[in-house]
Specification:
Elements (H helix, E strand, L loop, with lengths): L1 H27 L20 H15 L3 H7 L3 H22 L7 H22 L4 H21 L9 H18 L7 H12 L1
Helix pairs in contact: 1-2, 1-3, 1-7, 2-4, 3-4, 3-8, 4-5, 5-6, 6-7
Length: 199
Amino acid sequence: MQRVELARRTGRVAPVVTLGSILTAAAVAAWFSWPRDALSELGVDPATALLFNGGLILGALLALPYAVPLWAAATTHAARLVAALFALTAVAMGLVGVFPMETPPHFPVAVAFYLLLTATLGADGVVRRRARTGRLSLALAVAHLLSWAAWAAGRFPGPGLALPETVGAVMLAAWVLALSPVATESVGSHRRGTRAERR
């Protein structure tokens, strides 16, 4: 159980590393415009490529173990699906860094990341719809879809992808840090609480 708890704590560091690298890279690149550009453009500029891509890869490596406590805390097959979806989301995020913009695999892995993120939030929301954090997860899934719909409809400040991409990244961070089934308590206490709710 100590290893599972360590994996939970390691996973909670991932959003800090990932968002930190993105924001730092954006600050370093004087040319970068949030309304005009895509975040992945930071991954091809020699001045920010290592910081941006490396941050995504390191963040993914830190995030992947978080699937272990999610799986350990799961009491149903549907809850285990959430853990599996999160693991795939982390892998896709890392692959965005492995395959920078202008390489053929970049577009499919980037799309996969945002689709898997939505699926993770939505599945968790459905599984834990009776819990407040579950309902908030479901609301985030809907909001994520609406944010991309708003971008497609030209409702964002500019045509760039950076803003809707950042919305998704922040939602993932919020889920890991505050809303997931193991966000704020150890796996053991979560399982005990789940059993108590069933009685």
